[in-house]
Every structure is written in structure tokens, then in C-alpha cells.
Amino acid sequence: MKTKSEAKRQAILAVAAETFGELGFERASMSEICARVGGSKATLYNHFASKEELFLTVMFQASEHEFEAVHRLLDPDIGDVAGALRDFGRGFLAVLYSPQVTAARRLVIAEAHRSELGRACYALGPGKGDAALAGFLETAMQAGKLRPAEPRIAASHLRGLLEAELLERFLFGVLTDIGAEALGPMVERAVEVFMRAYGPT
Amino acid sequence: MKTKSEAKRQAILAVAAETFGELGFERASMSEICARVGGSKATLYNHFASKEELFLTVMFQASEHEFEAVHRLLDPDIGDVAGALRDFGRGFLAVLYSPQVTAARRLVIAEAHRSELGRACYALGPGKGDAALAGFLETAMQAGKLRPAEPRIAASHLRGLLEAELLERFLFGVLTDIGAEALGPMVERAVEVFMRAYGPT
User: What are the transmembrane regions (chains A, B) (predicted)?
Assistant: First the structure.
């Protein structure tokens, strides 16, 4: 059962998503969003302490289902671990490097040292994702499909390899649109290296 | 022979380094730096178009020699490639995750999408570093100490592995001070994975 406050929160999020989409982060103001939602500014700030927080909630809400769908590709019963990691890698990078998510990620990074926002986003985003990936790898290790190793570290290494050709260029704003065609070969290379290092001995 | 303009530039950089160190980036203003250097604001802005540019120049000037020293550890004549990569990895992470360099890197990332600053910094920093690393790996491949592969991609993979346990936590502001003791084992693990994947067959 939704409370009145929760209904208001959802209404704010829907309007904010529309406003950010239309005006971009810089030009969309809390005043503008407030005017479109209706009600007082105090109510708006009661739900979201800042424009950054509101934006990030909108972003997470939009990408959460996509990331969850990607993680479902990591079926622990699957026979072909390398194949599952390739499917996961392609899906994961496609979501992570989508314009919406890169914009949100850049904003978090810029704000991270100033607030508790970074810590919250880490727990909700990469922290959660890495834990799920580590769980899959651990199952594969137990089934003898990967050599025994520390699953959390193996998950970090896989993520590091998957992003190796993209991350630095993204961070410095040098990376422009990457199509799905470019992602495929990068993921192939990363998973090949991972399997050489972590494959069964 | 230094021109008068170059001498002025160096004087500005010395004062700016002191001012940023004393007040931090936010509180150090161009007016304050100008007052300490002496001379007109026009002259200051003639040398550095913005506070960001001035800060980054100071940062690069401070870390450039350290990064160059780290890259000199990659001696192409060395017999033990894994050992050289471990020495390089420890030195590289120690510089890259020093408080000074992380502050500069965070600033570039935050500013990258707004200006040409990101592109310039990429070329001067990671672009240059990755090229040097790729050169070393290529020599090792030619000597049969690593399997044949694309050197630029192998360099990206090595860097991705070296930073795998740190980067995401740094970006989200979750990472606090890492001591040299913590870096050692991380580098061991990364180089072990790299050598399993790229070692001679």
C-alpha cells in the first residue's frame, strides 16, 4: 500500500525524469521541477535534499532494471562459463556506457568527495553488482569450471579487464559514442584474458 | 634561454602551488594568486585561462617527474619481465593514488565533459603513459618473454588489472588512504593474472 508521501515521491521522480530529459542537468532547476509538480518547495526538499540527489535517484531508477537484467545472464547452472561471461560483459558495458548512465556516473564522481552521495551510490551500484558477479564466479569455482581463487578479487579483475579499453577515455571525456559493434571485440578480448588467468588448471 | 614571459609563468606556477597547498582548490582564488604574484590580472589570465587550467598545470608539473621515474623501471633489457612489472606497478599506483594526484585526477574528471581540458590531460597523462608501457610490452613480446599480442591492448589490460581493486572505490569517494603495504599484494595479484594470460606459451 502506497502512502501519500510515497505517491508524492513517485510523482516528483516522474516529473524530474521528464525535466532532466528535456532541459539537461544544468538547466533543470529545483524551482522549475517544483513548479511542474505543484506544491511547496519545502515538500520537494523534504523528499530530495538537493538537485544532485534527485537526479541520481532518477538515474538509478532508470538503470536499475537494466543492470538487474544483465546480472540475470549469470545463471549459476550454465555449462559454458566463458560464454556466460561474454553475454554478461556485452550487456554490462552496453548499460554502463549508455549516455544516461555515463552522465549519472560522471556526476557522482564529480560530487563524490563533497558528500555522502558517493558512498550511497557505491553501495547501490558497483558494490551490489560486484557482489553478484563474485557470487557467480564462486559457484563456477566450486563446480571446477574456474580455478580456486578469491571470488571478490576475481570479480574486480574481470570488471577491470572489461572496462580496460574504455574507462580512462571515458573519465577524461575523450570517449565519444561507442556502438555495440565495438563492444563485442573488447569483451571477447577481456574474457579471453580472464579465462586464461582463471580457467581450470 | 628563458624569456621574460616564461619566467613570469614559472613565478605564477610556484606561487599557485603554494597557494593551492595552503588553501585548497576551492578557497584559492585567482585574485588571491594574482595578489601574491604581483602584476595585473590580465597577465595572469594571459598565462592561464582559468583556475582549473592553472591547478592542473601545477599538478602535472609536480607529478610528471615521478611518473617518468616510474616508467624508467621498465628497462627493455631486463631479464625478469614479471619482476619489472611488479616494480613498475607498485611505483605507478603509489604515484597515481597519492593525495596530490587523486585530487588532480578528480578535478579533471569533473571538468572533462565541459572543456577541452580532458583531451589535453589525457594526451599528457594516461595517453603518454600507456604508450610507454605498450612499448615495453612489445619489446618483451619480440624477445619471446611474453606471447605475441597487440601491445596497446595488453597495456590497457595491465593497467585495468593494476587499478581493478582501487579505481571504482576511488571514483565514488569510498577509498580512503591506501598505504604502501596494501598496494604490494594488489600488484602481486594483478601481475600474476597478467602473466598467466600474457606469459610465453
Answer: none
Close Cβ partners of A23 (under 8 Å, ≥ 6 residues apart): A32
Q: Write out pLDDT tens, residues B91-101.
A: 999 999 988 78
Chain A residues within 8 A of B133 when measuring between CB atoms: none
Point out the residues of chain B with pLDDT beneath 50: none
Calculate ∠ Cα B197-B162-A164, nearest 5°: 75
Contacts of B73 (CB under 8 A, 6+ apart): B84, B87, B88, B91
Closest residue by Cα to residue B60 from B25, B104, B29, B112 = B104
Q: Cβ neighbours of residue A157 under 8 Å, at least 6 residues apart? A: A194, A197, A198, B161, B164, B189, B190, B193
C-alpha cell at A22: 528535456
Q: Choose, out of B171, B188, B195, the residue to mutate when testing the contact with A (most A CBs < 10 Å).
A: B171
A43 touches chain B (CB under 8 A): no
- Report yes or no: A79 at the B interface, CB cutoff 8 Å: no
Shortest distance between the Cα of B68 and any Cα of chain A, in A, equals 19
Q: Which residue has the cell 593494476?
A: B162
Query: Which residues of B are less than 8 Å from A197 in CB distance?
Result: 192-194, 196-197
Instruction: Go through the domains of chain B in sequence order and give each one's CATH number.
Output: 1-48 (1.10.10.60), 56-198 (1.10.357.10)
The alpha carbon of residue A37 is apart from the nearest alpha carbon of chain B, in Å, by: 30
CA-to-CA distance for B128 and B133, rounded, in angstroms? 9
Q: Each residue of A81-117: pLDDT tens digit?
A: 999 999 999 999 999 998 878 877 877 777 676 657 6
Write out the three cell numbers for A110.
564529480
Interface test with B, best of A156, A162, A176 (most B CBs within 10 A): A156
Q: Does B96 touch chain A (CB under 8 A)?
A: no
How many angstroms separate the CA atoms of A163 and A126, rounded? 13
Separation in Å, CA B160 to CA A32, A190, B163, B168: 42, 10, 5, 11
How buried is residue A31: exposed, middle or buried, by Cβ count under 10 Å (0-12/13-18/19+)? exposed
